[in-house]
Design goal:
The protein has 409 residues and is of the alpha+beta class. Helices cover 30% and strands 24% of the residues. The protein folds into two domains: 4-248 and 396-407, no CATH class; 252-371, Conserved hypothetical protein from pyrococcus furiosus pfu- 392566-001, domain 2 (2-Layer Sandwich), CATH 3.30.1760. It is built from 13 helices and 21 strands. Helix 6 (127-140) crosses helix 9 (211-224).
Length: 409
């Protein structure tokens, strides 16, 4: 059983890519998806967020939702909007966002290697979200949402993948968010064999985003054991794999509703016990590990944690852990960031102006900006078989849904 293998992908036919390609199912709520798909009958949102075709207010986990996904997929097949490749392929996928470019491989990744942690995790999953993806896969008999994976960059592998992009892409779509998606199909058996062998030689792959999708694929594989031929499509999951040094992680910032009974004059000295504190005339984009921005009462501050407080443990030394352990938990009284309603998270795509807006409006009392978690940090946590704190990474650009799906029949 290989770490990865080619597969006969289901994808938009020529000229239909722009009609089909859609944002990932988990970055839009139902109302946003309904608005985004309005007037777009072939948008993949009709498959990935099928509640948009049912009465408003329906529970997105209702059995009718999964049945509608299957109905919509069958309709797009019958109308010739989607078609399956005749032979197994790898696909090369390039994302371009502003001046950032990353080029990776679309492949079927081994569930067995996920189960044995060769495909490494760094997050906990939530049962209800796993259940949702299991029902979606079973209803469609397909995996439609790719798992974002990374490998430690290797020049020879990177060059093999990049060489495929010298030809004209079979799909080239710039979405309404400005992200360009290009796709090439790799059909040459020799090139396929070389890539398969190159990945088989790697010690590990790393899940960057898609823990629920990979966990659900594992559950479907286990449920089908004995009912389907061994080493069949059910034993692999849809993935897009990039070299780690091409991936882009944005800051994932925090806003908090109150100062835990303190006023700013009482709060600042407590912060200064563990951080060097300096007022700033402009919004603070942290310049490196251990530095934070703080916006309080109309004023930005630059915070640098005292060096002796940075441990060697790969999880405890993360910036999200340092601020939690030295400020958010002991001073602001928030110890469970997954469940505490006093804290919210703001992705770096929204900019520091969003932090100012939410504090200046009175909705929040204080905001913190972060230096982005690095891929080296993520891989170190995964290699240690540890779990990162919630909301540690925000990957951009996002993969599109609908470019390539992995059929299980």
């Amino acid at each position: 059983m290989s770490l990865i293998r080619p597969f006969a992908g289901l994808r938009p036919v020529a000229g239909r890519g722009a009609d089909v390609v859609a944002p990932p199912y988990d970055v839009l709520n139902s109302a946003e998806a309904r608005a985004r798909a309005a007037g777009k009958p072939w948008s993949f949102l009709h498959i990935s967020k099928p509640e948009i075709d049912l009465p408003e207010g329906i529970d997105p986990y209702d059995p009718a939702v999964y049945a509608k996904a299957k109905e919509n997929l069958d309709r797009m097949l019958a109308e010739g909007v989607l078609a399956r490749d005749e032979q197994p392929c790898y696909y090369v996928y390039r994302l371009t966002w502003k001046d950032h470019v990353q080029t990776g491989l679309v492949a079927a990744a081994s569930v067995a290697d996920y189960d044995t942690n060769r495909i490494r995790k760094h997050e906990f999953t939530r049962p209800e979200k796993e259940d949702d993806r299991v029902r979606q896969i079973e209803a469609l008999d397909a995996q439609t949402g790719p798992v974002l994976l990374a490998y430690r960059a290797q020049p020879d592998v990177d060059a093999l993948i990049a060489a495929v992009t010298e030809g004209k892409p079979e799909l080239d779509v710039t979405a309404d968010d400005g992200i360009r998606h290009e796709l090439w199909a790799l059909r040459d058996p020799r090139q396929i064999e070389r890539l398969t062998a190159a990945f088989d030689a790697m010690p590990a792959l790393y899940i960057a985003d898609g823990h629920h999708r990979s966990a659900s694929a594992s559950r479907v594989s286990a449920a089908r054991k004995g009912k389907a031929p061994a080493d069949g499509p059910q034993d692999y999951f849809l993935s897009v794999i990039f070299p780690h040094n091409q991936m882009k992680i944005l800051d994932y910032n925090r806003v908090i509703t109150d100062l835990n009974g303190l006023n700013p004059e009482q709060f600042l000295p407590k912060v200064a016990e563990h951080f060097d504190l300096m007022a700033s005339a402009e919004a603070v984009h942290p310049r490196g590990h251990g530095e934070f921005g703080m916006y309080l009462a109309g004023q930005w501050y630059r915070l640098n944690i005292h060096e002796e407080l940075i441990p060697s443990d790969p999880v405890a030394r993360l910036d999200v852990s340092l601020l939690s352990d030295q400020l958010i938990a002991p001073i602001l009284g928030i110890s469970d960031q997954r469940r505490d309603q006093r804290i919210d998270f703001v992705g770096g795509m929204r900019g520091l102006g969003e932090l100012e807006k939410r504090v200046d409006s009175g909705e929040m009392a204080v905001a913190f900006s972060f230096f982005p978690t690095t891929m080296d940090d993520l891989m170190a946590v995964a290699d240690a078989n540890e779990v990162m704190p919630p909301k540690s990474t925000w990957f951009e650009p996002k993969l599109a849904d609908g470019l390539v799906s992995h059929m299980l029949e």
